[in-house]
Every structure is written in structure tokens, then in C-alpha cells.
Amino acid sequence: MIKLSKKISEISPSMTLAISAKANEMKANGEKVISFGVGEPDFNTPEHIINAAKDALDKGYTKYVAAAGLPALKKAIAKKFKEENGLDYDPSQIVVCNGGKHAIYNALYAVLEEGDEVLIPKPYWLTYPEVVMCCGGVPVYIYATPRHGYKVTAAQIEAMITPRTKMLILNSPCNPTGAVYTEDEIRAIAEVCIKHNIVVLSDEMYEKLIYGGETHFSIAAVSPEMKELTIIVNGVSKSYAMTGWRLGFVAAPKHVAKAIGSFQSHTTSNVNTMTQYAAIAAYEGDQKPMEDMVKAFGERRKKMLEVLDGMKSLGLDYVKPDGAFYVMLLCYNLYGKSYEGVKINGSMDFCDMLISHEKVAATPGICFGDDDGIRLSYALSMEDMLEGLRRIGNFVSKLK
Ligand code: PLP
Q: For residue 125, which atom of ligand 1 is closest to its CA?
């Protein structure tokens, strides 16, 4: 029998698997399952982006290109940084990777030494700890409480710093909480990171998905000093409804980008060539389809929060999310209650019973390191969303 490596044996299997397997089985049996579990826009990729990929194929752009990305795409990304984030990046500081996830892996691999501590605000996107451990790092969690809008403070970060702390992972807008850090909050965090020489991996994948008047501010824009300590991760997956295309990127100090480019040249080589042409169209073409999508998410968010306000009397609560397309529905007040004699002990039980009794799929908060709630995505039609919320209300009202 082949013996697995220690490294891979330490990776946790996805905790969401049981619930999604159940949801898929029910759907296959023709049952009307409502899924709040989705982690991707339910919109199709805008047509002009699709056409750019088709055009690239027709023109025969089907060969290898530079491992770190097409020069024209890196130029388009550098232009985006300048215009949207006020950041000057030379194209040589950008590496185009196979999705945001791959960009994160590349960045951590490039920087972490065995035993380096990485600060991760919790609730966190579930991939961070796994990738940190894959790269020899040690995840150290900082609790972002609902009371503080699911955001960690500079003081909290500073209190967790040890001589082994190498990096902070900052994710704004945040998956799973939808929290968006303000410029002032980011400036305070930057001050601590500069003081202690902490690298920041700034995951800005949901940058464009912000509502309610908040704006995105990248920590790299704080000062040249902070920019030298920052690795930005971003990509087209969420912003342009392109999850299946697989394109993300890092922007980093020159020596870091160079190292990541070399590493990528030996691991995956370039991101598939037609996707890169599609991404040029995403950044340089018509922004209206993306803006329409954001508007639709904004309307759903507003409606969802209205309905959830009406469900507070049932023992549910939430913290207003300003970005991404998720809400953490706090249901810890209901733990200890029972549905038809079966007790709910945490978010996993809550989601398990919700799918079994009401055919509603959601993601248990425990998957993100926080058992107090469940994550609801509003990347589903308004009609399904309202029906799903009605079913959640129905489920909760039967608890004793
Ligand atoms: N970062 C966050 C916070 C995410 O939620 C995701 C995807 O769910 C990613 C990065 C990865 O995106 P991609 O699909 O481009 O790999």
C-alpha cells in the first residue's frame, strides 16, 4: 500500500462535504432543495469576456506563454491597481496564477519557513489554515467577534505577535462574514505590522462586491513601507463571475514576484492562454455587466437583511455584512433546543437538520472556525432566497 506523506495526511477533509452530499442526493431525487451554500456568483460570465476567449482560440492563441502571465494582462492589472487602488505596480511585480487559491498557495510557499506563525482572523475562509500548514506554517487565530463587526483590531493583532510571527492574513471583504475594514482600521493594522515587520497577505478577491456606501481600501496603499510588506491576492473569479476559468494573481515586491514566477514555471506554468485573454477583456472592457451583478447582489442583501430582522424574535441574529455575498446567521441561542426530540448541539447539527427537514442547504459556521452561526450565501435567485428564508423560519419555529 502506498504510504501517504505526513504533509498531505495533515490536511482536513472538507467539513461541508456531508451536507452538500445530502443536498445533491435530494436534488437527484427531484426534491426542491434551496442552497444557501453557494460560493460563487449565480450569474454567467459577461458575454464580451466569453467572446474574447473564443476570439483567442480562433486566432490560434493556444500555445504556452510566459509562466508569470501574458504581458498585456499584467499591464491591464497594473492599470487597474493604479486607477482603482491608487497603487503603482510594475507588471514585473504581478504574477498571474490559476485562481486566487493558487495565488495564495504560491505566496505562502514563497515566504513561510517551517514553524513560522501566521495570524488568521477567525471566522476565516477555510482554505487559509490548510494552506498555511501545507507550507510549514502554524496558524494562530485571532477572534473577530460579532460585537466588533467581525473585525480584528490592531491591538488584538499586536497582542498575538511573538518572535515567530511572520504573517497576517487579511481578507476584506471577508468570506464568510462579509466584513469590510475601513481605511482607518486598516491604517491602524498597518502601523502594527510595520512596527513588528509582519508580512500581510491581503486577500482582496471580493473587492468589487461592496454595498451600503463602504469602499475598498488596500493595506498596500497605506505607505511605501507597508507596500513592501504586502502581498495582494485578487482575481476575476468573484468580481467578474469567472469562477470556472481559474485566474487569480499576486502583486508583490519585485523579488517576491520573481520568486513566485520561478516557482510557478516549474509547477503549473502559465494559466491557460485563452483565459488570460478573457481576463484582459474583463479588466479593460465594459464594466456594466459587473456593475449590474453587484447591484443585483445589493438588492438581495437588502431584502435578506429585512427578512432576517423579522426573524430576530425567533432567537436568530446577524451582523450587517458590507461586502461579498454572505451573511453569518447567528443561531447559538437555539443550541440546546430540540427538533422532534433531537437536540441541536452546534452549527453542524443545525445545518444537518435544516437540510433533512426543510431541504435547505447552508454552511455550518464551524467550517470557518466559529460555531455560533451558519453561513448563508445570497448568490441565488431572489425567489429561492425568500423561499429558503421562509423554510428556515419554519424550522426554527418548531424548535422546543
Ligand atoms: N479568497 C477567498 C476569500 C475566497 O472566498 C475564495 C474562493 O472562494 C478565494 C480566495 C479563491 O478564489 P478562486 O476561485 O479564484 O481560487
A: 3
